[in-house]
Amino acid sequence: MPLTWLAEGVFTSHQATLLLFSLALLLGTARLLGELARQFKMPSVLGEILAGIVLGPTLLGRLFPGPMEAMFPLSGNVFIGQQTLTLVSVTLLLLVAGLEVDLAVLLRQGKAMVLVSVMGMVLPFVLGFGGAWLAPEYLGLGEPALALPFALFMGIAMSITALPVIVKILLDLNLSKSDLGALILSAAMVNDLVGWIGFAMVLAMLPTVGAGLDATATPHGNLMLTIGLTLAFLGVMLTLGRWLAHRLLPVIQARLEWPGAVMVFIMVVAIGSAAFTEWLGVHSIFGAFIAGVALGDSRHLRQSTREHIHQFITNIFAPIFFASIGLRLNFAEAFDPVLVVLVLVVAVAGKLAGGYWGARWGGLEKRQSMAVGAGMVARGAMEIILGQLAYDAGLITEPLFVAIVIMALATSLISGPAIARLVHRHQRRKLSDLTSDRQYIPRLVAHGPRAAHNELAQAAERLTGLNAQTIAGAVWAREQIMRTGIGDMLAVPHARLDDLSKPCIVIGGSERGIDFDASDGQPARLICLLLSPTSDANAQIEMLDLIARTFQYEDVRRDAFASDTFIQLLAAIKLAESRQNEH
Amino acid sequence: MPLTWLAEGVFTSHQATLLLFSLALLLGTARLLGELARQFKMPSVLGEILAGIVLGPTLLGRLFPGPMEAMFPLSGNVFIGQQTLTLVSVTLLLLVAGLEVDLAVLLRQGKAMVLVSVMGMVLPFVLGFGGAWLAPEYLGLGEPALALPFALFMGIAMSITALPVIVKILLDLNLSKSDLGALILSAAMVNDLVGWIGFAMVLAMLPTVGAGLDATATPHGNLMLTIGLTLAFLGVMLTLGRWLAHRLLPVIQARLEWPGAVMVFIMVVAIGSAAFTEWLGVHSIFGAFIAGVALGDSRHLRQSTREHIHQFITNIFAPIFFASIGLRLNFAEAFDPVLVVLVLVVAVAGKLAGGYWGARWGGLEKRQSMAVGAGMVARGAMEIILGQLAYDAGLITEPLFVAIVIMALATSLISGPAIARLVHRHQRRKLSDLTSDRQYIPRLVAHGPRAAHNELAQAAERLTGLNAQTIAGAVWAREQIMRTGIGDMLAVPHARLDDLSKPCIVIGGSERGIDFDASDGQPARLICLLLSPTSDANAQIEMLDLIARTFQYEDVRRDAFASDTFIQLLAAIKLAESRQNEH
User: Fold this and answer.
1) What ipTM was assigned to the predicted interfaces of this complex?
2) Between A and B, how many residue pairs show a Cβ–Cβ distance under 8 A?
3) Which of A116, A512, B94, B391 has the highest Cβ tally under 10 A?
4) Is B483 exposed, middle or buried (0-12, 13-18, 19+ CB in 10 A)?
5) With an 8 Å Cβ cutoff, are A12 and B391 in contact?
């Protein structure tokens, strides 16, 4: 009996093997290329999309059509399984994006924010809508009957921004807490919110989303009803839903198991909302996004709960979605250089001008306003999701979708450097970037401070070319003015040198500890020799602060003291840096 | 073009709606019933399985056959989508189970552990195998040709234990760090490891697992080859794989993004191993489990990374799997009381006797040995997964599967209370169980200690029936001997009273703080009045320790100080308790 029952439609062992193997392959490749992108200071989403292009018909599918088509087929149980994972992934990704929108911050912003967000939307929208309305066939309208939704889509596609990308850029530039950062962030949030609502309307205008013929039980086809219900859903979620979530969260945390119950509550609300908006005909991700906005606003949602959800979804589910984009598209065939340039120019010009003028009218000076414009230019994940949905719905052609993906990636790449140049910010220095295995001595032989100076100076000589005795002498002179034990078993002997071109750090470990006369009386087990050029007035203070901040955590110090190799020390430093990057 | 492409097999909007809605419904119901089970001090997996029974053919499917069959169908895209999520869920669940096995601890154990684990396996195995071999039709053999694998399966099913359940029971009883706890845990780990390896062999003996007809590319059918490859996989993973993981983890943590890269690494290894063992014909979960054992052993895998993986998988994926069991089974029809009792008796008797004699021969005294036996009795998640696989493979009938599920749940329920009774342990007291909203005054009016005593004593009068003046007098007398400010803005005024039947706590908040003469000079913002019976010598010290432990965390204190309602205070207390439960 079970055998016949199973034969109906469950996975065969062969299909289960393919499904699991393709999942591992996709995830692994996406991470590998994502990390590679990060090495070149590019967003990891670039590598993740590239993974799909490599594994899909563009590259490996062309070289090894047999195995690749077996692993990533276009029909059958394996295909449906992969589609399921993609659907769940993109839904959860939008939940996380929604959680990042902070309505409370938005409501506190002033005139400048309103002007930036309005101008940053209106100008790109007009450009996108106008172009698409005047030359739909040229841009790649999928279906002639859909000229109006197509033009609306192009307007919206030009006017949304990429919240996660901007958050990351501002964090990297140490601007996220500044007025300029708050302005850019808030305007981007408003753009996203309005953009997604608009896109939901466009989706509602399409005859049947997803080419379904059994969509009889849904309000499809009645445009006014769908739009009315969507707006009602939006209104209820952002008022009553938000209030209810704020009330329920402490009760759930107090009465039920923590953090499991809260995590499930968030998932159920998000997936339930997604199902509801999908039923309305405006795609599941809209519901998940709005649910995220409503839930994320409550200060009762604890940071650690957010972290569990955020880490798993952005690291596991997001790459599955981004990599799957390239799996069934041929980027080489669908690449249309003129279209790509056109989309890119309109996208950059509209946002740059809109953001700039909005900021100017809001009272900002020229340079700052240009930085705001540059910040608004960044597209990213959201733009790609929008394009994917429009493509799936038959609204746009493959070449236009490819152009949108490339535009999203290119704008994410240029936004950060442009802001940095405009506001004279360089990336925050990181200790992990300033150290290498040539700069680490796991076990110093020295018992006293002077011998330790000498040992570290030897290493510094090999790095800088300066004479070790000169270095040790300068450091010892400084040590006699001020003992450099800073407590917590750390010492930071340092000196400024004339002939140095850039700062230099050498780190040494001591198992029994060396007495650097710290105020807590403890011997130093980690000694960081710090040399900086006399010409660079700030370098020394900056680096001292950097070391103190990195080793402020007890577990980081413990790991650093216990290190035998540079890799282990670096792992401890990275742990500290990952904490400082949390937001 | 995209429209025709999509029509091939992608989800229609209607199917996507059903898939998402059924997922939200399943997850929400599973959590709700799981929490309900916890309220009655039962394992939450009981409620999760019940959710499937409620939503499936046993209950709602019978009352509303139309909607329930549309939501949980037996074929079609929605069905395949749900099967995908179940497959991924059970694979990841076994990864987490594997991560909990600590090979290093196993190797340190002595003779008693070896005897307990061997006896605890051999006796139940003999009983299970013998019974199934002698009366296969009666027990419910699915396919007459499979008599040998069936008997082997029954032997293994009787001899495995439930690691996660045991961990939880020992934690609750505060026994997890004791010698007795370590003995039970290690023996259970060995049982699981051996049991799963044995089960993999049994699966390999089946002609074609999963009723697949296209399994030509796999080593199916060649039993020796499959078993050889399985053992080779096991050997390589637990030696070379383990060593490699230990080497790679620090490099990944140091060089790549943290914690994302490590999380993806673990997932890719686990899902890749799962695909490999599925290809071998021994089911994906075996590979995921062994990958977990190999990876979890490294001390380089940080606690917070484990937490992210653990929380998401046990809270989101595990309930999806457990609830899906009941969705396609009719528990009412397949319930055979004689079979249930038979399976239960054999399962309990075999483990109890085996564990007891093993412990006795290992040198433990009678009562302790009985506690070991009671610990080994607990089955749970693992048993159910085993049953599900055997049922899917056509090895056992529906009534036997139902009996195994019931046995797994029943043994999990009786094991904890039995151990507690045998070693005279009561459950660790929790502050959250000892407080209610009648015991909390968010804003004390008092400015000084004596007035605070009086206010809190008023509340204590209402709770205990004792006179408020008597209480305040006793507390004040104690206060004059020893000031009760314990620092960190906490004060614990206390007294022992003759007429009290059980301990009583009243907590008061003070926004400006009250000076209780703490050594750190800070005024107390949270004052916990603690009354205990003179007859119970330990109660006072135990409760003082409980309060100090609960409020040791800075964020918990901050939340507690900021509370306006009892729910908020309770949420803070629960946060502290959830940390103490972590392992």
Assistant:
1) 0.79
2) 310
3) A116
4) middle
5) no
